[in-house]
Write a structure and sequence with these properties.
By secondary structure, this protein is mainly α. The protein is built from 7 helices and 3 strands. It is 62% helix and 10% strand. Strand 1 and strand 2 form a beta hairpin. The longest helix has 24 residues. The chain folds into 3 domains: 31 residues, no CATH class; 93 residues, Uncharacterised protein YqeY/AIM41, N-terminal domain (Hypothetical Protein Yqey, Chain: A, domain1), CATH 1.10.1510; 51 residues, Arc Repressor Mutant, subunit A (Orthogonal Bundle). The N terminus is likely disordered.
């Protein structure tokens, strides 16, 4: 391969750039990719590098799992024609799902007397939650539900989908929608 056809990806300050060079002495043009969608990805990438340097195997393996889940979703999005990948809202949903899976696994392990595996799952939850926004308290969640009901003008249980749509749009990663659904149902029912 000659230097004329050199194309490579370079990571600069946590942001991926595609470097294209016409020759060895030519100027390098850098094009940022996913410029508006890199914050969570950049944080995970930076934490991954720090875990490698610190030789923290638990944190490293968990961060690699997060990266793999994000890349899987990116590949799925490319299949749908979205070349830019997924945004922070989808990444937050992925991480929320990972937390939920680990909570269920930890519960099963505790019931089965496998406390060491339950502790491993709980430590992974803590690592993942480092990247999630702060969870709303019950009072804050109730206030958010009331605001969403008022915004949509919901009057009956038939409007529950609209209310949940508003809540998911504003509070992804901050609310447990498994608990929020019944709360909305009680207020509308």
């Amino acid at each position: 391969m000659t230097s004329r056809h050199l194309a490579d990806w370079v990571l600069v300050f946590g942001v991926n750039f595609r470097v294209v060079s016409a020759s060895v002495t030519a100027h390098i043009r850098a094009k940022p990719i996913r410029d508006d969608k890199m914050e969570l990805r950049a944080r995970v990438s930076t934490a991954l590098k720090e875990a490698m340097k610190a030789k923290d195997s638990t944190r490293l393996s968990t961060l690699r799992l997060i990266n793999a889940a994000i890349k899987d979703r990116d590949i799925e999005a490319r299949g749908e024609g979205k070349d830019e990948g997924v945004g922070d809202d989808v990444v937050l949903a992925i991480m929320g799902k990972m937390v939920k899976q680990r909570q269920e696994s930890a519960k099963v392990y505790e019931e089965g007397g496998r406390l060491e595996l339950a502790e491993k799952e709980l430590s992974e939850i803590k690592i993942i939650e480092d990247f999630l926004p702060r969870q709303l308290s019950d009072d804050e969640a109730a206030a958010a539900i009331d605001a969403a009901i008022a915004q949509v003008g919901a009057e009956s249980i038939r409007d529950m989908g609209k209310v949940m749509g508003v809540l998911k749009g504003k509070y992804t990663g901050q609310m447990d929608f498994g608990k929020t659904g019944p709360m909305v149902k009680d207020k509308l029912g």
